Amino acid sequence: MATSIESETLKQYLADNPPSVVPLAIKPHFESLSDKEKLYAHHISIACFAGTRIVLRQLSPESEPIYDFIIALHKHCNGDYDALAKDAGLSKDDLDAYLNYAAQFLGNLGNYKSFGDSKFVPRLEPRQLKALATVSNTALGLYEQFKNSVFAGNDIAKLHLGYPSDGHVSTYYPDSPDITKEEIAGVSDFLADKKLLPENTRIRKTKNGFEVLIASALSNPPPEQRDTKESEWTLDDGKKVKLVFGDYSKEMETIAHHIDEAKKYAANDTEVGMMDEYAKSFRTGSLEAYKESQRYWIKDKGPEVETDIGFVETYRDPHGIRGEWEGFVAMVNKERTRAFGKLVESAPKLIPLLPWDSAFEKDKFLSPDFTSLEVLSFAGSGIPAGINIPNYDDIRQNIGFKNVSLGNVLSAKAPNEPIPFIKEEYLDVYQKYRDPAFEVQVGLHELLGHGCGKLLQETAPGEYNFDVENPPVSPITHKPVSTYYKPGQTWGSVFGTIAASYEECRAECVAMALACEWPILELFGFGNGQPDIDGEAGHVLFAAYLQMARAGIAALEFWDPKSRKWGQAHMQARFSILRTFLNAGVEFCELEYTKDDLSDLTIRLERSRILDLGRPAVEEYLQKLHIYKSTADYDAAKKMYDEITTVEPFYENLVRPAVLKNKTPRKVFVQANTVEKDGKVELKEYEATPKGIVQSYVEREYV
């Protein structure tokens, strides 16, 4: 028997009020492109956004009609929402609640959050939403399709994405409410045996078996263009597995057409090859062609217009193998990319500054490719701050991958956005320098943090990558090390569930330690390489430490008191670094408050003690993180990491509630459109408001 959901629980599923709507600023970077580059960017942007309905259909059955409803209402009133409210008899508050929901819906391309996978519902009474629908027949027809599923309902399981058999929602398995995890795994493993990749598929359960829906413009591609010539099999239990091409066929054809158009304006043969393989994959459903496009993509080094498009990340498929549609077009920020390049060049001089000797370091630093981009278009359910793709391991190992940081996503802010936990007297410096400080931190974290360190291994029986007769001495115990990775063991297999968070923590600590080096701050354009704690370089360093401490407090939102687990790898890491700052003593860092409910909680962090108290504390922690990882000492690592990331009663009962009261809604980005007139491309920008984001979608007529 379904019971109604308690109102306290329901609160966490209400749409943000208001959402944080921010502009994705791009104009100067777009204007600096040549006419030919603008045309290339324009057609790929359309190809990206033409997949909008794919994202909606991959999410929930009601997402597409809700999208059409939002667009239909805007067209009906021609963007004059005051007239619409009057027509429907709605108050200004009701209208705002509707527009806030519409903005958050478009920002996540669906009615489940892209970060957290939980449903959000309008802060509007059902009868008021219906009143809006009655202003036009089109809107009313659409409302009838989603009216029972736009609100919370009585079933809490339906408020989360996941396996249908757990009662959750997933349209990766459309019209298949009774498909089991075992059946999904069985069909997926069967396809893997047939060498069929899963990223562009969905599975539907039928009376006599399963249909594997493949995204392609053609509903019957010629056998020689497919990844397998067969298209139907009978399983051991007599059930049939049948490939059905043409999932999202209309969208896939629009996408392929604009990829063909973009090819005419490609800058070189590599880009031409990449466009050919994309078009082939999107028309025929071949993921082998898609992998070929990614091989070209990696070889397209430092292009003026950077782009990638397809079924990429697999976070939202409960089974973790089917990809969500996404695509982006961006311009290279040459200045920032140059700073990252200089950082990579100086790596051999910088890594020896870390608290371990060469025995625990790679013989040669492998320099990754790292670019800072400014995004023109990013289609999908959410925009990340950085990307490291492709996800195909064979390509990563043999050809490589790209690391990109998305500069205008990192720096996008809503006007007068509140900044909790930062003291009044620090605010000016913090607001002015938090973006540059974050840039320094991201660069050090990605390039040197993840890039440094050696794993001591027995690479094959009796063969070692270190002198086993005379092993290196641990700087922690001052004795020769006695543990190492055995043949076949990897860092992931030994460290298991803590690996991801532990490695993020190690990379963050490398960034905190090396940000104290004045020559590094000079590489990024701050100071002259000399000690300068009270000058501009000191401002950046101070902002970096403040930002990390603040992130450590805000992290508590991602710790769950029921399961007593951290839901997010980076957040657990940042909390442990805040604890490390506090452990350095009140002379360096302290949480201050005067009220019992901690509603005035702030961080005091002494700028003048970063170098003599902050950095040594970070380095002592980093040394343990690194040496335990290097020597496969899982027991010592787990004991230390569990201890420092345990959420004690003070943090659970006092700090966490203060964090939840102050949490800011996730950003919703308003993106520009490109418009072609007489063979030239212009940029059309929109105001950063809920109406602005709706308008930007209305003008994508091809969706």
TrEMBL record:
It comes from Lentithecium fluviatile CBS 122367. Pfam families: Peptidase_M49. Binds 1 zinc ion per subunit. Zn(2+) binds at H445, H450, E504. Gene3D superfamilies: 3.30.540.30. It is an enzyme of class 3 (hydrolase). The keyword Plastid does not apply. This is Dipeptidyl peptidase 3. GO terms for molecular function: aminopeptidase activity; dipeptidyl-peptidase activity; metal ion binding; metalloexopeptidase activity. GO terms for biological process: proteolysis. It catalyses: Release of an N-terminal dipeptide from a peptide comprising four or more residues, with broad specificity. Also acts on dipeptidyl 2-naphthylamides.
